[in-house]
Amino acid sequence: MELWLLNTFGTAELAILFVGGAVVFSLAGSLLLRRFSPRVSQGRHNDVIAVVLGVYGAIYGIILAFVVVAEWEALGAAETNVATEAAQTAEVLRDSSAFPPDQRRRISIAVGGYVHAIVDKQWPLMREGRPDPGLTNPEITALYKVFQGYEPQTEVQKTYYGQAVSSLSGVAIARRSRLATSQQQMPVLLTGLVIGGAFVILPLSLAYGIPSLKVQLVFVGAISALIGVSVLLVLTLDRPFSGSLCISPAPFREGVLAQYWQ
User: Fold this and answer.
1) Is 60 within 8 Å of 201 (Cβ atoms)?
2) CA contacts within 13 A on the Cβ side of 20
3) Which residues, 6 or more positions from 1, have their beta carbon under 8 angstroms from its beta carbon?
4) What crossing angle do the helices spanning 155-183 and 46-95 adopt, rounded to 10°?
5) Buried b (16+ CB within 10 A) or exposed e, 118-137
6) By the 8 A CB rule, do 119 and 258 touch?
7) Are 185 and 238 in contact (CB under 8 A)?
8) If we measure between CA atoms, which residue out of 58, 73, 57, 39 comes closest to residue 211?
9) pLDDT at site 208
């Protein structure tokens, strides 16, 4: 459900769905509550509601802050890892300039195959949360075989050969990290706390009676909008390779790797 929402609707549409839905629910609930339970709207239970709302609000705020910070850091790490993988792949290609023409050509073909397999085959599946490591296994294996079948002759070639193999190892490590990150998501319990907490805070805010209708609508509308934005932010950050704000494969199309997309 989460992936379907992120991949089907744009950011503006999701904002309308989450924020607008929460605000409409709260405003409608306030109007109905004032009509069918006048005592609540008059604030007769505000002493109790204020304490409960304050406690729940503080706990929920701490949970949201923890989740948002953790997810933001994970998003940054995933984006950095993608850039590192692309940079290491480009470095393999640059180091090959010290090799004979035939070896350079074989490395270039292998690198091109790997880059296209990532962007054309693997990235769409990562967007759906089900990356298939097998889609790039042949290409990364082919890259290793190209180097395993080559024996550098000069000292310069040996130096660049060592650097290229080291970069290739970095590519493999970054690839594994990228695939693992694309499958990770918040634990079910934590997701339940974020979404369930919203369903607790919203009714509590409705139960806090304010004599003035306008003031109460502004009060519940502001709280519901903040909660809607928070839930949407958490869901968006939880899936760094999905949705309209996802991590882009652009690093694999830039720099020295741009030659494979011309």
Assistant:
1) yes
2) 7
3) none
4) 150
5) bbeebbeebbebebeeebbe
6) no
7) yes
8) 39
9) 79
With H, G, I as helix, E, B as strand and everything else as coil, classify residue 23. helix
State how far the Cα of 107 lies from the Cα of 139, in Å rounded to an integer. 11
251-256 long-range contacts, Cβ below 8 Å, gap at least 24? 251/82, 251/83, 251/85, 251/86, 251/87, 252/86, 252/89, 252/115, 252/118, 252/119, 253/119, 254/86, 255/86, 255/90, 256/90, 256/93, 256/94
Please spell the DSSP secondary structure of 191-220, one letter per residue: HHHHHHHHHHHHHHHHHS--S-HHHHHHHH
Which pair of structure tokens corresponds to residue 188? 């079910």
SS3 (DSSP) at 259: helix
Terminal C-alpha separation, the chain = 37
Number of neighbouring beta carbons within 10 Å of residue 96: 23
Q: How buried is residue 68: exposed, middle or buried, by Cβ count under 10 Å (0-12/13-18/19+)?
A: middle
Residues contacting residue 165 through CB under 8 Å, at least 6 positions apart: 147
Mean pLDDT in residue range 51-71 = 86
pTM: 0.83
Q: What is the pLDDT of residues 169-214, one digit of tens each?
A: 999 999 999 998 888 888 888 888 888 888 888 888 887 777 777 8
